[in-house]
Amino acid sequence: MTGADNVEVQQNMIKNNHLGIASHSNSGSKITSNLISGNQLAGITFVNTKSSSMDMNNIHGSQDGVFLDEQSSDNTIKYQQCITERSRYQ
After folding, report:
1. In terms of Cα–Cα distance, which of 1, 10, 53 is closest to 28?
2. Measured between alpha carbons, how far is 87 from 44 in angstroms, rounded to an integer?
3. pLDDT at 87
4. Which of 4, 22, 29, 57 has the most CB atoms within 10 Å of its CB?
5. 10 near 34, Cβ under 8 Å?
């Protein structure tokens, strides 16, 4: 999702990619109840993303479970299950 505002991604199975879900330069998005597995770099990535949320996602098998960069702000992260990887908040 690049430059797209108010996007909802929910109840998907996303696996075997470089990035599971990537949000770049958007706001107001909701990422909810997804199964995200086996993605090489990250399960969910927020880059320059504002006022968005991720709730109740199951993330495993990625280098980073959840990644947010310094330009992302006012986001809500609740109830993520990240297994066997690290979550990095910069």
Report:
1. 53
2. 10
3. 53
4. 57
5. yes
| Its pTM surpasses 0.85 | yes
Q: How far apart are CA 26 and CA 40, in angstroms?
A: 23
62: its two tokens: 């990625």
- Residue with tokens 């075997």, as numbered in its chain: 16
Beta-strand relationship, 58-60 and 30-32: unpaired
Quote the tokens at residue 2.
Answer: 């690049």
Across the chain, mean pLDDT equals 91
For the chain, the 3-state helix, strand and coil shares in percent, each to the nearest 5, are 0, 55, 45
Phi then psi dihedrals of residue 54, to 5 deg: -135, 125
The SS3 of residue 37 is strand
Instruction: Give the 3-state secondary structure of residue 86.
Output: strand
Joined together, the tokens standing for residue 26 give 């958007």
